[in-house]
Amino acid sequence: MRLLHYSCLALVLAVCLAGCSGKEKKTEDHSRRPMMTLEQRDTAQVFELTKSFLESLKANDIDKAVSMLYFLDADRQVVPLPDSLVERQKVVFRTFPVLNYKIESIIFNTETDSQVKYTVEFFEKKPGDPRPNTTSFFIKPMRVKGQWYLTMYDSNTNNGGQSGIKN
Predict the structure, then answer these.
(1) What start and end residues bound the annotated signal peptide (predicted)?
(2) What is the CATH number of the domain that holds 120?
(3) Which of 10, 33, 96, 154 is 20 to 30 Å from 59 by CA-CA measure?
(4) Strands 78-80 and 69-72: what pairing?
């Protein structure tokens, strides 16, 4: 009888241990980057920086607008656009002159990964004209050492700040 009790106890213990060992162990995900801390002034600064950029385009001061665009280099330093990208941006801004604009949205993800969507009206539309006269663009605000900068949305800042656009 004692042998039966010990056998049953051993069997129950084995079943319990087998049941517990089959479960996957939970692991904590420490790979998530911490979210950046934002204040109301960050939103205001990005809005004003974007507004200044768009006002320069509206005033047809393309050189000033392009001089406001940056990217991060491989050392994570904010640098002005290289000449090749400056010329490319000037072509885009001449192709789509800004008569009016609207800042559609500002989305903050991380300090180097946020976006501003804006829409521009690039010609006056006459009644009955079926052509669209607006288009939307994105720019990418970045906060580096507490300072906000505007970058081109195609800037691949995770790869040394090189543009993903190829000629």
Answers:
(1) 1-18
(2) 3.10.450.50
(3) 154
(4) antiparallel
Is residue 11 assigned to a domain? no
Q: Which residue has the tokens 């205001």?
A: 44
The two tokens of residue 23 are 């479960």
144 inside domain? yes
25 occurs within a structural domain: no
Domain count, the chain: 1
Give me the pLDDT at residue 160, please: 42
- pLDDT confidence tier of residue 145, bands split at 50, 70 and 90: confident
For residue 110, the cross-strand partners are 113
pLDDT digits (tens, 9 = 90+) for 89-122: 999 999 999 999 999 999 999 888 899 999 999 9
Domain of 60, in residue numbers? 38-159
Residue 4 covered by a domain: no
Contact status, residue 134 vs residue 122, Cβ threshold 8 Å:
yes
Q: What is the mean pLDDT of residues 134-146?
A: 93
Q: How much is the pLDDT for 38?
A: 76
